[in-house]
Amino acid sequence: MYLLVRIVIRIEPFGKYDKVVLTGEKRNAITRDVLESLLKLGCEREVIVTNEGPVFSAGLDLSVFLESKERVLEYLFTIHKLIKKFLDCDKRIIAYIKGDVYGLGVELLYFFDYVVAASEALKFSLQGINFGLFPPYTVSIGKYLFSYGHLRIMLSRDFTAGEAFRFGIVSEIGQLSPERLFSPPEHIGAFVKAKRWIMERVDEAVPYLYKLAEAATSEETRSRIKKFFAGNRGKS
């Protein structure tokens, strides 16, 4: 048995944990539907978030930035609410990445307890600047999470899951083994990233959410986004 939530997320209960599958619609962009579905998850059980298709997450839903600034801010602050939920959960939230990761998809991984990448070669990218956007959590609190050298690489070019492992975004590379992770003694218990302290810092991103909304709704940025959609019309 499984629960189908607006076709973009499938939630499958497995033993001690819930498996959340991003099913591939719009290359797993973080749409409002995705946010609403993730916010409905409780913190009573452990959670594994994974993907179908070649992309774990394409990041921000660019179509949002063609709406009013008020709607854009509502969207960005819903993302912020989800991040604070991740940080506040007592149970572990684990990501199993089986595809490339872009923009906000990369940034959300900072707030998971444990991140497994299926292959060293998977692509990570924060290059939304090509659309006039910027990664708000990397810019605002990245200094607490990464060394200056690693942060400079992350913001200047695409990088691999192997590099993300060295940076500290990815915890482990290889096939996910739920039996190993969730069988006593719990394998990752001693290795879960101590993310709760970030709760004290995460609101430092709030001013950058306002700046992102301002930049993202400029005519220049909207023109780039419209050209992107026009060039990709009809593509899956």
Describe the fold and architecture.
By secondary structure, this protein is α/β, with parallel strands linked by helices. The chain has one domain (3-231): 2-enoyl-CoA Hydratase, Chain A, domain 1 (Alpha-Beta Complex). 38% of the residues lie in helices and 20% in strands. It is built from 9 helices and 13 strands. It has helices at residues 32-39, 69-88, 104-109, 136-145, 148-156, 161-167, 178-182, 206-216, 219-231, and strands at 3-5, 9-14, 17-22, 29-30, 46-51, 55-57, 59-60, 93-97, 100-102, 114-117, 123-125, 159-160, 172-173. The longest helix has 20 residues, at 69-88.
Write the layout of secondary structure elements.
Layout lengths: L2 E3 L3 E6 L2 E6 L6 E2 L1 H8 L6 E6 L3 E3 L1 E2 L8 H20 L4 E5 L2 E3 L1 H6 L4 E4 L5 E3 L10 H10 L2 H9 L2 E2 H7 L4 E2 L4 H5 L23 H11 L2 H13 L5
Parallel strand pairs: 3-5, 4-7, 5-8, 6-9, 8-10, 9-11, 10-13
Antiparallel strand pairs: 1-2, 2-3, 11-12
Helix pairs in contact: 1-2, 2-8
CATH architecture assignment name: Alpha-Beta Complex
Poorly predicted spans: 1-7
Helical content (DSSP H or I, runs of 4+): 25-40%
Spatial sequence of strands, sheet with the most strands: 1-2-3-5-8-10-13
SS-based class: alpha/beta
Number of strands: 13
CATH class: Alpha Beta
